[in-house]
Amino acid sequence: MFEFPKDFLWGSAIAAHQVEGNNIYNDWWKDEIKGVFKFRSADACKHYELYQKDFDLAKALNHNALRLSIEWSRVEPEKGRFNEKELEHYRQVIRALKERNIEPIITLHHFTSPIWFNQLGGWQNKKAVAYFLEFVEKIVGIFCSDVRYWVTINEPMIYIYFGYLLGIWPPHKKGIFNSISAFYCLVSAHIKTYKIIHRLYQENNLPRPLVSVAANLRYFFACRKNFPARFSAYLRDKIYNLWFLESLSKHKALDYLGINYYTKEDICKDGHPQVEKNSLDWDIYPQGLYEMLLKLKKFKLPVFVLENGICTSDDNQRWRFIAEHLKYLHKAMQEGIKVIGYLYWSLIDNFEWDKGFGPRFGLVEVDYNTYERKVRESAYKYAEVCKTARLIEA
Questions:
Q1: What domains, with CATH codes, occur in the chain?
Q2: Cβ-contact 221, 265 below 8 angstroms
Q3: How distant is the alpha carbon of residue 303 from its chain centre?
Q4: Helices 128-143 and 176-203, packing angle to 10 deg
Q5: In this predicted model, what pLDDT tens digit does every residue of 337-394 receive, in sequence order?
Q6: Bond prior to 171 in cis (omega within 30° of 0)
Q7: CB 344 within 8 A of CB 66
Q8: Among 103, 130, 170, 380, which residue's Cβ finds the most Cβ atoms within 10 Å?
Q9: pTM above 0.90?
């Protein structure tokens, strides 16, 4: 048996563009309509209309935390013009969680940006941080009394890699100089957002907030033990996993370490034993979560697993994935790593960006023809863990 703290945060995560539907003012929607991607989000999961139902499911599954994002382009569709109707919508969304005693963990930027923001140069514009901070000030000022946990930017290194280095995702910039300038802009955005959030909580005499990013961590594994392979693994780990976090840590701009973990990456492929895969062909390597948590010990901050999940058509595989990752999470905690919570990605099936609706990550199945929800067996097994704070080994 693996026992977790009684005050542990258990739950799942979603993101606005992937579940809400009809986010017509953001850069992804624009590309989808233009045919840049093979798939369109369209109505997505109709979570915008069905959020009460989805939160009822989360409550019934014993979740006491839910991570979600506020779609910047909905609340500020034009620069400087905030939509009061959409702000009220998100107020109702957050209150719906609070009424169910589910802790809201709010993400401010989850891959999507308003069309106007990118037209003005995106994260390479010298004024980009100022534009983002106007949004932050508005959102945090409204919701601070109901929210304690904030995530400024989701997976900044993934976002930079696909959007500013390879140019596959919006805003379709390519090259090392584009990616480096976006990196430093996002670092600045987080640091200044961190300060704004803390200032607003002080001004409103509220308990201290907890602010972080959601850093996607990948375990880089050198199959061969020669120097080139080991050095390559070290360098990728240093740049991809640690560079952003270290940049924020230097400025004391993290209250916890928000991490997303899915997979490992072999530095050399030949001769390495095959491991289990998900439906996107990502390696399933639960031990990597443990290894990455040990690396984070130097930051001397609590860790919050904000995403960990699998896309698969085999629900037995989904439960094995959850259980094995929780065992390694527990092992890290036994070795002194303070972990405050674990969120599975995702609560419901959703629009997986340029991969469309094919990958099935949800604890809850979505029928994209009828938008009916069906709870998977793995969700019930995870619900028992959430309820008891115990994982009983089969």
A1: 2-391 (3.20.20.80)
A2: yes
A3: 14
A4: 30
A5: 999 999 999 999 999 999 999 999 999 999 999 999 999 999 999 999 999 999 997 5
A6: yes
A7: no
A8: 170
A9: yes
User: pLDDT, tens digit, for every residue of 49-101?
Assistant: 999 999 999 999 999 999 999 999 999 999 999 999 999 999 999 999 999 99
How confident is the model over 98-115, as pLDDT tens digits?
Answer: 999 999 999 999 999 999
Count CB-CB contacts under 10 A for residue 101: 9
DSSP 201-262: HHHTTPPPPEEEEEEEEEEEE-SS-SHHHHHHHHHHIIIIIIHHHHHHHTTT--SSEEEEEE
pLDDT, tens digit, for every residue of 290-328? 999 999 999 999 999 999 999 999 999 999 999 999 999
* CA–CA gap between residue 271 and residue 289 (Å, rounded): 23
Structure tokens at 56: 């009822």
Give the CA dihedral 266, 268, 272, 276, nearest 10 degrees: 30
Neighbours of 278 (CB within 10 A): 22
Residues in Cβ contact with 377 at an 8 Å cutoff, skipping those fewer than 6 apart: 315, 319
Q: With beta carbons less than 8 A apart as the criterion, state whether 218 and 265 touch.
A: yes
Mean pLDDT of 143-158: 98
Query: Pairing between strand 390-391 and 2-3?
Result: antiparallel
- Burial category of 189 from C-beta neighbours within 10 Å (exposed 0-12, middle 13-18, buried 19 and up): buried
pLDDT, tens digit (0-9, with 9 covering 90-100), for 217-263: 999 988 877 888 889 999 999 999 999 999 999 999 999 999 999 99
Query: Is the C-alpha dihedral spanning 122, 213, 67, 85 positive or negative?
Result: negative
Q: Which two tokens stand for residue 44?
A: 């997505």
Q: How far is CA 240 from CA 102, 155, 157, 274, in A?
A: 32, 10, 7, 24
The type of residue at 252 is K
How far the first Cα of the chain sits from its last, in Å, is 9
Name 174's Cβ contacts closer than 8 Å, sequence gap at least 6.
164, 165, 166, 167
Task: Pull the structure tokens for residue 304.
Answer: 């919050």
Count of H-run helices and E-run strands, the chain: 14, 12
pLDDT at 394: 59
Tell me the average pLDDT of the chain: 97
